[in-house]
TrEMBL record:
GO CC, alphabetical: cytosol; lipid droplet
Pfam family, one: Perilipin
Protein name listed in UniProt: Perilipin-3
Localization of this protein: Lipid droplet
Family: Belongs to the perilipin family.
Zinc-finger is among the record's keywords: no
Length: 113
């Protein structure tokens, strides 16, 4: 989970969503109260689940470690094959706009000639 969260694309997307969430909560009192209630509910469920799952995780620790190592290697390979994962969302959007604009200009030139 940490490895996925540290991917530039994922972390920048989380930052954008977090900023939008906080901004929306601050701007709209009705939404703030709903969000606060949802956050409390999620926190309670997480705490309850953590205490129940902990003994199971202790029993499966070696299996979890093996899966974690396998997954880590897979994510490393994915990162090598998809350099897009190492770019922030803003740069991907900018690059995409550039490509679309260039293609549109090429199409316009082709139609004009």
């Amino acid at each position: 989970v940490d490895q996925v969260a540290n991917l530039t694309l994922v972390s920048s997307a989380c930052d954008i969503v977090s900023t939008a969430y906080v901004s929306t909560k601050e701007s709209h009192p009705c939404i703030r109260s709903v969000c606060d209630a949802a956050e409390k509910g999620v926190k309670s469920v997480t705490e309850a689940t953590a205490s129940c799952v902990q003994p199971v995780l202790a029993t499966l620790e070696s299996h979890v470690a093996a899966v974690s190592e396998y997954t880590s290697k897979g994510l490393d390979k994915l990162g090598e094959n998809l350099p897009l994962l190492q770019k922030p969302v803003d740069q991907i959007i900018s690059d995409t706009k550039e490509v679309v604009s260039s293609r549109a200009a090429d199409a316009k030139d082709a139609v004009s000639s």
